[in-house]
């Protein structure tokens, strides 16, 4: 008898769903059935409920004891999202958000993720954790059809911020990633973060910013196209993708998702950790009016952080972290400092900081006024 799984994976199913055809390459499933079982029965378990970015689930900065098994659940949801006013993407998401939720564990903990591929979806999906070791980051052990679930456990052996993303094989890989299927995990050192001297540092808040490049096709009139479902969107989207020129570069799934009424908030004197991921393309975060006090540019906490950076670099396929203590009140723009991408394509966030202005750090000595050009200003010229 042909099971649902066999139908979807095999020739019959593929003929019915042409979009899946090349994903079948991901069927190079790792056979781990002969491996000796790991005895983790003495470890404590804890469940973490994932939350929508830019927020991050409750967690301790210093590990409270021995390594634990940290359980997470995520549902894969294919759905249309609005990436700008009147511009739509047939998105693929981890847990319904773009980016997927940020997970936090400590070095030496075990991450145990149950992944559900909703029966309403059309496509196979999986998850590749850059923080994991072996089996394509878990990708070859987690390939699930619509209506299937799977559970993967891996040991978080390296501290840092790491991307995870869908990677179901062949050209499905870039398509799923630029359709929204990426997120981030932060593996904290057991004792928490440390500065350039090795002294402990804590953050008061953490914000997770996931940057995405989208490739939305246009019709013959130059209007962005809208599609019935994810399968219908594939051929036109592939053509735009292969041109390597994104139509949108956004934070957290949409132009304006972190500006105006959606701005991030902090108080003067607070230390904010910004975790920034980009699963597909390089980027260069910059906090206008502020700095990176301590920046783990490559996101790996075994390396001493850089200090006082103006702009930092996130290599495509990685996540970095920057800690900043807000010293002045006001609105800060956190941008991708390719300013075309920030301003014209969407990659801007705002941080609204409450507090008292410090004139020692900055003062408007003369507010703008007209001046007499016959007498003033010439002294400035060489
Ligand atoms: Cu996928």
From TrEMBL:
Compartment(s) of residence: Periplasm
GO annotations of cellular component type: periplasmic space
Any matching Pfam family: Cu-oxidase_3
Annotated Plastocyanin-like domain residues: 78-190, 207-356
Cofactor binding note from Swiss-Prot or TrEMBL: Binds 1 Cu(+) ion.
Reactions performed catalytically: nitric oxide + Fe(III)-[cytochrome c] + H2O = Fe(II)-[cytochrome c] + nitrite + 2 H(+)
InterPro entries according to UniProt: Cu-oxidase-like_N (IPR011707), Cu-oxidase_2nd (IPR001117), Cu-oxidase_fam (IPR045087), Cupredoxin (IPR008972), NO2-reductase_Cu (IPR001287), TAT_signal (IPR006311)
Any one GO BP annotation for this protein: nitrate assimilation
UniProt keywords, alphabetically: Copper, FAD, Flavoprotein, Metal-binding, Nitrate assimilation, Oxidoreductase, Periplasm, Repeat, Signal
Family designation: Belongs to the multicopper oxidase family.
Protein's recorded name: Copper-containing nitrite reductase
Species assigned in the record: Pseudooceanicola nanhaiensis
């Amino acid at each position: 008898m042909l099971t649902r799984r066999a139908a979807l994976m095999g020739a019959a199913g593929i003929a019915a769903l042409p979009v899946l055809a090349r994903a079948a390459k991901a069927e190079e499933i790792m056979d781990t059935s002969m491996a000796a079982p790991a005895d983790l029965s003495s470890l404590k378990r804890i469940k973490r409920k994932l939350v929508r970015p830019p927020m991050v689930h409750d967690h301790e900065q210093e590990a409270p004891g021995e390594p634990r098994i940290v359980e997470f659940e995520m549902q894969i949801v294919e759905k249309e999202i609005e990436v700008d006013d009147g511009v739509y993407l047939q998105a693929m998401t981890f847990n319904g958000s773009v980016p997927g939720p940020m997970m936090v564990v400590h070095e030496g903990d075990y991450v145990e993720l149950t992944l559900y591929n909703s029966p309403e979806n059309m496509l196979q999906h999986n998850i590749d954790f850059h923080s994991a070791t072996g089996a394509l980051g878990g990708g070859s052990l987690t390939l699930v059809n619509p209506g299937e679930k799977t559970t993967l456990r891996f040991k978080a052996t390296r501290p840092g911020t790491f991307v995870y993303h869908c990677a179901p094989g062949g050209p499905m890989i870039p398509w799923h990633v630029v359709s929204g299927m990426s997120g981030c995990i932060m593996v904290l050192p057991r004792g928490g973060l440390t500065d350039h001297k090795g002294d402990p540092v804590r953050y008061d808040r953490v914000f997770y910013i996931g940057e995405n490049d989208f490739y939305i096709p246009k019709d013959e009139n130059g209007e962005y196209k809208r599609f019935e479902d994810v399968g219908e969107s594939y051929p036109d989207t592939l053509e735009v993708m292969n041109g390597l020129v994104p139509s949108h570069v956004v934070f957290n799934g949409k132009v304006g998702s972190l500006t105006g009424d959606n701005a991030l908030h902090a108080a003067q004197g607070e230390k904010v950790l910004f975790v920034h991921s980009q699963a597909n393309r390089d980027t260069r975060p910059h906090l206008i009016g502020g700095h990176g006090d301590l920046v783990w540019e490559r996101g790996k906490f075994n390396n001493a952080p850089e200090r006082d950076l103006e702009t930092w670099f996130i290599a495509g396929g990685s996540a970095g972290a920057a800690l900043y203590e807000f010293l002045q009140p006001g609105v800060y723009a956190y941008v991708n400092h390719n300013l075309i991408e920030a301003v014209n394509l969407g990659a801007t966030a705002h941080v609204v900081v409450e507090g008292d202005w410090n004139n020692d750090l900055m003062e408007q000595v003369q507010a703008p006024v007209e001046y007499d050009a016959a007498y003033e200003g010439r002294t400035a010229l060489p």
